[in-house]
Amino acid sequence: MQTENLDNYKITVLPGGVRIISEYIPHFKSFSLGFWINVGSRDENSRNNGITHFIEHMIFKGTKKRTARQISDAIESYGGYLNAFTSKEETCVYVRGLENNFNLYFDVLSDLIQNPLFKDSHIKKEAGVVIDELRDIEDNPEELIFDKFEEKIFAGNSLSYPIIGTEKNILSFDSTLLHQFHKKFYRADNLLIVSSGCIEHQKIVELAEKTIALKSGISNQKRKNFVQNIADDYYVEKDTNQIHTIVGTTSFGFNDERRTALKILTTLLGEGSSSRLFQAVREKLGITYQINTFLNSYKDVSAFGVYYSTSDKHWEKVFNIIRREFNKIIDGKIKDSEIKRVKEYLKGNTILSLENTTNRMIRLANSILHYGKILSLEEIVAKIDSVTKDEIKEIAKEVLAEKELVTITLGSKNKSINKAA
């Protein structure tokens, strides 16, 4: 067993490979505890796409020790909060609660990830729930368009798969398939246990040694690195009152130092009510309610873009304003005061997020999973402060160039859209 002390953080690696990261905050009365498994929809193929998310649902349907009702009662009857999520690269099951209930909550989480029953009767019932969730996404243009965007820009890589999967796949899942996938990825060397709050590190280590019986294995989990492809503009026909659009491209992932400068560029363009696009489109002209930039990042690549919704009457005008603002930045028309404002905005958001133990726990996990180490708040602030105007201009030339951009549009068939030149 190896333990490393880093400021307020401690990291222990157990003999089987389980990593335990904790941040002890003695003046808190609560904690957040997350069990992170390094598996997501990126680790799937076209035949089993959706299985990671489905397993996340199924672990709550019963274990060898607890029924579904006993799982929820064990947490909620003591004032705790239990939840989980699946991303394209990770699965997380987490709980927030009070100090005196920590042992029970730890036992529940360890039970969930190690001992799911995957009964066929439960699978059949839950398939209906997940399919209903899938249809909710299909009925929601604001969600559906993001799936379509990543499907196109990541074509040829498993990052293109939607997290929820397909109805055909969901209906094909059975106990044998789920157990096989679970055994392959829910391993000791694939597990990260992260805590933030009033719990001391040694207590977590002792509970992990006592309750975690997952085996290590020879991992065949070799993620295919993303290779740039040329994506075409795409129109999704959907009966909607407005037209929904994403203009964007692929860019730097977590493993690229330029991502911080890209985040500043993204924020300057369309994050917050002071951003260029919000001011130019919503505040000045009042022709859209929603317009914002986004940066969905993975280990080796990010999805960058602008999302907006508007009427068919105003679609082209908004599109032209976006291109105009892109070209201004490409031409170097950026004020020092803008960059300063954006840096302060990002630093402020980062610091404010640390008021919550769940956010702190998630930040610790993401830091380890994305960077292989814990980035301190001082390091994050220094990274933001170190970005120069010239760096932003160079990245803008690469990311915002028209030949790099893909436009995904979603709307009714009778809406006439002409992409501006």
Explain what this protein looks like in three dimensions:
There is one protein chain. With 421 residues, the protein is an alpha+beta fold. It folds into two domains: 2-211, 2-Layer Sandwich (Cytochrome Bc1 Complex, Chain A, domain 1); 234-411, 2-Layer Sandwich (Cytochrome Bc1 Complex, Chain A, domain 1). Helix content is 43%, strand content 19%. The chain is built from 15 helices and twelve strands. A seven-stranded mixed β-sheet has the order 1-2-3-7-4-6-5. It has a five-stranded mixed β-sheet with strand order 8-12-9-11-10, sandwiched between helices. Strand 2 (9-13) and strand 3 (19-24) form a beta hairpin. Helix 3 crosses helix 8 (201-211), helix 9 (259-270) crosses helix 15 and helix 10 runs antiparallel to helix 11. It starts with a strand and ends in a 10-residue tail after the last strand.
Number of strands: 12
CATH topology of the largest domain: Cytochrome Bc1 Complex, Chain A, domain 1
- Order of the strands making up the biggest sheet: 1-2-3-7-4-6-5
Q: Please state the structural category.
A: alpha+beta
Question: What's the structural domain tally?
Answer: 2
Whole-angstrom Rg: 23 Å
Uncertain ranges: none
Spatial separation of the terminal alpha carbons: 61 Å
Strand content: 15-25%
Mean pLDDT: 94
By DSSP (H or I, 4+ residues per run), the number of helices equals: 15
Globally, the shape reads globular
Can you tell me the CATH superfamily of the largest domain?
Metalloenzyme, LuxS/M16 peptidase-like
Percent of residues in helices: 40-55%
